[in-house]
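hey can u check if this looks right to u? its 98 residues, i copy pasted from the old doc so theres a chance i mangled smth
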Amino acid sequence: MTSPTAPHGLNVMRLRRQIEAQTPEVTVLDNTNMGDRHTGLIKVPRKDKKTVTAHSDPSEGPDGVRYRKKVPYSFGDTVTAGRWTLDTSSLKSYPEDW
């Protein structure tokens, strides 16, 4: 028997699989941000929201890469960010006590 995974981990896994299926060379940055620094970034939702944020239109700034465009999507929307199109209908809400 395996231990259950927290809702955030499941959401990250679901988004990561879609990104990797579309672009196997993509760099997964961490458990909150996924994508490719040069084309776009997906911000995984926090537990208090039912949204995914897509960051795109990167530019170099004094502190590194900055994204000029930021678009929030609700769970269930089809998200387009950079070269990816992601289905968020399988993402799960976080329980109140989590």
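The two ends are 22 Å apart (CA to CA).
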